[in-house]
Amino acid sequence: MFDLIIIGAGPGGFEAAITALRKGLNIAIVEKDKLGGNCLNRACVPTKYFWIGAHTIEKLKVFNEYGIDIKDFSLDYSKAWEGKEKAISFLRKSVSQLFKTKKVPVFKGIGKIIDKNKVKVLTEDGSEKIIEGKYILIATGSKPIAIGNLIPDGEYILTTEDYMDKLKKLPESILIVGGGVAGCELGYIMNRYGVDVHIVELKNRILPLPFISEEAAKLIMRKFKQLGIKLHLETTVEKLEIKNNKVFVKLSSSDEIMTVDKVLLSVGRKPNTDIDEIGLEKDEKGFIKTNEYLQTSVENIYACGDVVNSPMLAHVAMYEAKVAVHNIVEKNKKKVDYSLIPSAVFTVLEIGQIGLTEEQAKEKGIETITGYFPFMYNDKAVDEHEKEGFVRLIFEKNSKKLLGATIVGASASELLHIMEIAIKKEMTAEEIHEFVYFHPSLSEIFAYATYDIAVGSLFRK
Amino acid sequence: MFDLIIIGAGPGGFEAAITALRKGLNIAIVEKDKLGGNCLNRACVPTKYFWIGAHTIEKLKVFNEYGIDIKDFSLDYSKAWEGKEKAISFLRKSVSQLFKTKKVPVFKGIGKIIDKNKVKVLTEDGSEKIIEGKYILIATGSKPIAIGNLIPDGEYILTTEDYMDKLKKLPESILIVGGGVAGCELGYIMNRYGVDVHIVELKNRILPLPFISEEAAKLIMRKFKQLGIKLHLETTVEKLEIKNNKVFVKLSSSDEIMTVDKVLLSVGRKPNTDIDEIGLEKDEKGFIKTNEYLQTSVENIYACGDVVNSPMLAHVAMYEAKVAVHNIVEKNKKKVDYSLIPSAVFTVLEIGQIGLTEEQAKEKGIETITGYFPFMYNDKAVDEHEKEGFVRLIFEKNSKKLLGATIVGASASELLHIMEIAIKKEMTAEEIHEFVYFHPSLSEIFAYATYDIAVGSLFRK
Which ipTM score applies to this complex? Predict the structure, then answer.
């Protein structure tokens, strides 16, 4: 009998595995697909890979400013696709190598919990195997959803996973349904590699997510338009027909029929909860029900990641995995705490978000005061030709304690962690201002964005 | 009479000016050269500019991994030089524009304190002007030193300032005397732009500075050799002769005479202290003597930056400037605190350093335990083709509190701030480990570098 059976080897399952191994547990892993899960194989990691390519394409135009004269170049997305495969297979191998070294059995197949201590593994060849564990961790992740008449067919109507798995050659044109994170990220990438990109979004802005401020979304929309990405806001797909290798689409915003090569669905994900025969409780939204220790309705069975009702982010899964394994092994249980979860979006500019936006603070009835600084006057950003973007810091009005930070611009997804610790440690505008930042660094924007509040305004009189 | 006269408009003087303006002071500035000082015009900012060019040249070879096929390119350093000029003149203009908007008089010339409230400005045309101030801040910076028989002539024997001001066209070969930060940074840049670079260093390693660990210096030396930069360690320049447009050099390490086009001196800097006729006290090393409030021996005269005995770094000057102006205006005086000063070096890999190295902790008699993680297994670094480098975290052995961090690799100069706050806030290995980092991000190296200490080793048995 294993100490712990982990179902799913995505970011949650992997993190649980290495935490459990470090705590001396005897573990087994069940994975129906590739090690690393969607995050490594079809989402976070390959998206950032392509983003680096897209961003590099954009930067080519400033290379002559560094004396690098590119006389001739061409783009070949299929090579980027191969590069992406190389990168993720290197990482996948490092995971499998680790499991081999630590002699962790990886059962390839679909895991089903048939008893509180038993997992039945259905392998591809149809055979079954039953393994036993004192504890079970469900980390089975999620899958893309379809909406209405938009049924993915893997050829013309694609999910984001089809995109990563199959689209080695890009179409000439694409309609992306859903202007959320994945839609905007892939839309930007395809645009930079030469695709005619349309994005359809039901709401009146792209990235219509509570953690993305109006201010950030507006800047990205403006930049998208400059790049030639066509945004169809407050729009739905009314009709869709596939004919002669093309997709004919009728949008609610126009009487004309639009013709594209492909449609990409990016309208959300649902948890993979078809994993037990023992009646594990689910919540009203269909997620596996867990308590604050990440225990399911069955005491020795835990769950983490997209399969539970928390932000569907790889790092949330990783965090939950650590908490769950801790709670399996240790007596002093830890509660999950979602109060500080970073977010980032990679398009024409990076967006990094931590804590509350101004809108969210207002909704909570908190009086705020904000600090702002544009990258334009940051020396390092000027050096990097990355003058676009800004930081907006949100403080509680009286205490001047930091509540949230929105960073739009270079390295936002890294810089946000500085503000994340600042929020966690309840730092005030003055403390953030007086902190010594390396010069020149992008991080100095935080010193400048706090000047008005900590010292006084330059232009108050 | 002005509230405050600031002598020197480098990073210290500028920061003092905007802090003073925000505090409502009526100020005047005296500057003998360009606004922005050496930092903006001849050191930090242009060095990073050229570094981005050099690093981009190095990255060209992985562009095909992103489907960007560079068929033909050429390097022209003089264009990089022009780009650098554009960048720094943009920043300089933003400074001068601000002073204009705020109606701050900028007196062009050499400032000399002739009385505790009077500064005599000697302008280039020989005229003199005397201005009066309640307070005076000395922020006159430093200048390069020469050693022994190596006398800069601005043509064959260059200072780092000559390099930035004059070297629009690079020589074919150069000998850099001094393997410190500036020597290594400029050596790397020139190497990437095609120069045959030799570095002579008295000590047995490059970057022989207490805040750079052996481990970091060794990695950079190995990479330098791979790039073809020739290191002459434990070596001095014994003889030097200029003949037929060439410099003939006899090094202590060889009997042969080496021929190079130029010699770059990078052996240190000394404070610009020739600024008064009132007998301001200096310390034994020749710096302006200040107390912990940055007051000189004359009560109403303060000093900050390279001219006082503290680390010769732009951000130290900026920090001191804020403290000095605060102490001029406010009743609750602040003491300067140099306990957390970040450092970074930009060569083939970035080095970011905060707090103590292992060697420094040992010298202080502190028992340590360290955490390590290579960038190689960081997903984002793999995406970026930036797999080289590592993070080394130094913890106090019993409390597991963070004492220091060395980061060698991508974005080290930004990431170090995350560890800087962690040290300031006395975070333990466990806290750093459990912190939620965005995935995938380079910042995740901190979660992995703390795994062994916070959770347990993977390979302890």
Answer: 0.98
